[in-house]
Amino acid sequence: MIIAIDGPTASGKGTVAKRIAAHYGLARLDTGALYRGVALALLDAGQDPKDVAAAEAAARALDPDAIDEGRIRTVEVGDAASIVAQMPPVRAALFDLQRRFAQAPQGAVLDGRDIATVICPDADVKLFVTASLTERARRRWAELEKLGQPTDLVALTALIAARDKRDAERPEAPLVQAPDAHLLDTTGLSIDEAAAAARRIIDAAVSGSHP
Ligand code: CDP
What we know:
Layout: E1 2-6, H1 13-24, E2 27-30, H2 31-44, H3 52-61, H4 75-84, H5 88-102, E3 108-112, H6 115-119, E4 125-130, H7 133-146, H8 153-169, E5 182-185, H9 191-206
Parallel strand pairs: 1-3, 1-4, 2-3, 4-5
The structure holds cytidine-5'-diphosphate.
């Protein structure tokens, strides 16, 4: 079984993906971490994230097992990730890796922006996870606070809105709900409630009873 989960920043898609993978015994790939890994490699090398040739080289050289989880979750890396993610050669360089992961023998959950539309258009179940901008900004603010990176909520909200716009308006693999994806709005839902809602959608879709 392949489950595709897409959605904007801090919509809860990562947490839902993790819970779903554990529940159904599937492998999970956080594809945003790949773009963040490329961005971090560029920043570490003192290169400009807008430099397409450098970004493509970093994407081709990326070792997914060597991505520094502890350093990719900053606002700066997230922002640079959405810049390199606009570049077709970067997306092409990361394509095979994601496709291969989706073929994991036990099945897989992939979460990102273009999983249902580009990476796994034939996924068994597609979820589009979202939440209001205010709630997403508040969640990300709390996450950053926990990571020891306190930020201003108003500035963070503006940054997230700008990233949403960049992700949704880019010509290559924009963030969009696939026509056959099930919408899951996590505004006002706890993590447990969001995961339970996702399980209900998946169980219904798999048993063929979902509209
Ligand atoms: O954690 P957050 O939702 O903020 O972002 P992420 O999922 O880690 O992704 C970081 C950036 O990578 C996004 O803003 C997208 O521009 C890009 N991305 C993408 O283009 N395609 C994907 N499948 C995953 C991420």
